[in-house]
Specification:
Blueprint (H helix, E strand, L loop, with lengths): L1 H5 L6 H31 L4 H4 L1 H13 L3 H7 L2 H20 L4 H29 L2 H32 L4 H20 L13 H24 L4 H23 L13 H31 L4 H29 L1 H19 L8 H16 L2 H10 L6 H45 L6 H38 L16 H12 L1
């Protein structure tokens, strides 16, 4: 096969470098926005269940578009896909930067997501086909170092920009950089691809889009509408049915848009489940922690960003180390160690109080990042290593899709848990406070009391959500004990003549 031949050649470092820069800018934009969520809530007059759409809406577009990337990577050249992806991301960044109402900001974010959806699977696929299995851990480690550099500088940069400028400056800052990267790709990327005789099944696109889109929209709406709302349970039901029909259709096709047969490889299936469960727990922290730090504790955006800086630096520096350890020992030991740290730190985050010190938060977040650095890349790489090379586009697309879906579900679920817990706790505390009053309070005293009740209730809701995420992370830890080191599975080309002809044609191109 053509992919197997490429593994013996010198990796295309030029292409990889350009793709990494593009992915870095996309990832940087996400880390910039996390710190800005409380400021956006205040400026645009929206609450946590609405502002979460800047995260879950991004995931919604990713969840709809990423399944098509397996087809796109096989059909089009790296150059074409990169230019489309970076062009969409740049356009979305410009739109978001000039948003003065929440729907326009959300539209900009979703346009960015359309570009990001193509970028990450494209880069992962180029990495997989460019390095042999025995060197793949180290290569992925360098990849992680570059991408984890974004969380290292993102929160601090975001905090500084928000303190001195409007939150829109986050997008204005990224726009010229993204434009330059787009121009670099236009002039320097020269790869070509012979025409490949595969077609996109539009019915599969519709079914998959309705399936993943329905699930994501339903779970994301639960925080605002409640789980008993028809808007929630009907869209989840429609999404589940459409996804089920889509899977049946893909299994029966000779050229599936997204090949679900890759789940017959046990370590890939296990790594997918572990990544989904872990993502559900971890994505929530990206939303819950900034709300606690800034809204409950009143810590400035800059100090909030500085608090996250050491942990992000640790995660970035650990990536190449983790990559080398993966090549030497495999992913099981790393995953068990990292997930144990994640479970412990998640539990400690569920014990936050109004007296938790800044230093305690900094240390706890840093240790949590250390645990994360040992899990995500080793687990996903271990699963992908078992796949035959022709399934790499499908494996990377599937991994990215499942992470987006599970991230959105986890975020929506835990934000809903936080909101519901906060509301019920606020009622309890409010009634207790009224009962304790011996005389009619002044208007100012009543306002102060109400503020204290709301802060205490929100803190209780955040703690409870982190406790739930602890149990979710514990499930991933149990599953990690079943991981095994793998070798690449033998590539058994399809059992039927049609599939064999298709694969042979792809290999020739």
């Amino acid at each position: 096969m053509g992919n197997e031949k490429n593994e013996t050649k010198r990796p295309p470092y030029g292409i990889i470098s350009i793709l990494m820069i593009g992915a870095f800018i996309a990832f940087l934009n996400n880390t910039l926005l996390n710190i800005a969520l409380p400021s956006i809530m205040s400026d645009l007059k929206v609450d946590a269940s609405v502002v979460q759409w800047l995260t879950t809406g991004f995931m919604l577009v990713n969840g709809v578009l990423i399944p098509t990337t397996a087809f796109l990577i096989q059909k089009y050249s790296v150059r074409k896909l990169f230019l489309v992806a970076m062009g969409l991301f740049t356009a979305g960044t410009i739109l978001a930067g000039f948003a003065h109402i929440f729907p326009v900001l959300l539209a900009g974010r979703m346009t960015q997501a359309a570009g990001s959806a193509i970028m990450m699977p494209l880069l992962m696929n180029v990495m997989l086909v460019s390095f042999p299995i025995e060197k793949r851990g180290a290569a992925m480690g360098i990849f992680g170092l570059v991408l984890m550099g974004a969380p290292a500088i993102g929160p601090t940069l975001s905090g500084w920009l928000i303190e001195h400028y409007d939150w829109r400056m986050l997008f204005h800052f990224v726009t010229p950089i993204a434009s330059i990267v787009l121009l670099i790709g236009f002039f320097l990327l020269k790869d070509k691809k012979e025409k490949v005789a595969i077609r996109l099944d539009f019915l599969s696109v519709i079914l998959t889009s309705v399936g993943f889109g329905g699930l994501l929209y339903g779970f994301s709406s639960a925080g605002k509408q409640g789980w008993d709302s028809p808007q929630v349970y009907l869209t989840i039901a429609v999404g589940a049915i459409s996804l089920f029909v889509s899977i049946l259709r893909q299994i029966k096709q000779d050229q599936p848009m997204l090949n679900y047969r890759i789940f017959k490889y046990p370590m890939f299936a296990l790594s997918s489940v572990i990544s989904m469960v872990l993502t559900m727990a971890l994505f929530s922290g990206m939303l819950l922690l900034p709300i606690y730090v800034q809204t409950v504790r009143g810590i400035s955006p800059l100090d909030a960003g500085l608090m996250m800086l050491p942990g992000a630096i640790i995660m970035a520096l650990m990536s190449p180390v983790t990559g080398k350890l993966f090549d030497k020992f495999g992913g099981r030991l790393l995953a068990i160690t990292g997930l144990s740290i994640t479970v412990i730190t998640s539990y400690l985050f569920s014990q936050l109080s109004l007296e938790t010190t800044y230093t305690q938060l900094l240390l706890l977040f840093s240790v949590r990042m250390l645990g994360m650095s040992m899990v995500m890349m080793p687990v996903s790489t271990n699963g992908l290593n078992q796949l035959p090379a022709r399934f790499y586009p499908h494996g990377t697309a599937m991994n990215n899709t499942l992470q987006q879906v599970s991230g959105a579900i986890g975020t929506a679920l835990l934000v809903t848990i936080m909101s519901n817990r906060s509301e019920s706790r606020a009622i309890e505390l409010g009634e207790a406070a009224k009962a304790a009053l011996t005389e009619q309070p002044t208007q100012a005293a009543l306002a102060e009391l109400q503020q204290q009740v709301m802060m205490s209730a929100m803190l209780d809701g955040i703690n409870f959500a982190f406790l739930v995420s602890t149990f979710i992370a514990a499930v991933a830890l149990i599953l990690a004990f079943f991981m095994k080191r793998v070798t690449q599975a033998e590539d058994k080309i399809g059992e039927n003549p049609v599939e064999k002809k298709v694969v042979t044609k792809l290999a020739e191109n």
